[in-house]
Design brief:
- The chain is an all-alpha fold and 115 residues long.
- Helix 2 runs antiparallel to helix 3.
- The chain is elongated and about 45 Å long.
- The two termini are 24 Å apart.
- The mean pLDDT is 97.
Length: 115
Amino acid sequence: MFRFEELEIWRLAVDYGKECYKISGQLPKHELFALGDQLRRSSLSISNNIAEGSTGSAANFRKYIQTAIGSTLETVNLLNFAFENKYITLDVKERMYQKAEILVKKMRSFSKSLR
């Protein structure tokens, strides 16, 4: 087992990404390659950065966690854009926003623990 696989933040990020992948598949056809692709890439970037950062020093890992937080916020922005264009419901937007809030809080807490 790799170090990152033991981290709660990595598991939460994987689950969040899986949900974003499902949402992206429900977008209108004309958005599958623009908004859908960007949503998939930004959400996958969250867990990727946690995994990649886990191999280096604590200081380096903190930088990767900050990048993962940025990817989470990018994903939230994309979901907001999807909502504003009526591609997703308010319930979906709010549910994903709440999950992102929890994930960001846990990543910040984890980053602080690396000091």
